[in-house]
Amino acid sequence: MRGLLNAFRPLDMLKQNEISGDFQSIGVAEELKHARRAVWDYYCMKQNVPVGMSFMDSIKDYEKKELSKRNNMTL
Q1: How far apart are the C-alpha atoms of 26 and 57, rounded to whole Å?
Q2: Which residues does 44 contact at the CB level (< 8 Å), separation at least 6?
Q3: Domain range holding 64?
Q4: Which one of 5, 50, 69, 75 counts the least CB within 10 Å of its CB?
Q5: Structural domain total, the chain
Q6: DSSP single-letter state for residue 54
């Protein structure tokens, strides 16, 4: 999986384009970020873990449960 994600990072090409003044490569870099995100989301989906920002719901639920335990503790 790491190799697949690294394939979306042609850093040498982007650096050379920037040095030569070809700033259109910034748009290419943005597109590559979107493609990389799609690959990562697919990987997460296949691993049965939350995709994108949906993990925040799990965090909020966990915090709610844990904080309620702490609030119910007697000192």
Answers
A1: 33
A2: 50, 51
A3: 2-71
A4: 75
A5: 1
A6: G
What's the helix, strand, coil split of the chain in %, to 5? 75, 0, 25
Q: Do the beta carbons of residue 32 and residue 9 sit within 8 Å?
A: yes
Q: Within 10 Å of residue 23's Cβ, how many Cβ atoms?
A: 9
Q: What is the pLDDT of residue 73?
A: 67
- Summarised one tens digit per residue, pLDDT across range 15-72 is 777 788 877 777 777 777 778 888 888 998 999 988 888 888 888 999 999 888 877 7
Cα–Cα distance measured from residue 10 to residue 36, given in angstroms and rounded to the nearest whole number: 12
pLDDT of residue 46: 93
Query: Is this prediction's pTM over 0.90?
Result: no
Q: For residue 59, what pLDDT is reported?
A: 87
Please state, in angstroms and rounded to a whole number, the distance separating the CA atoms of residues 27 and 70: 49
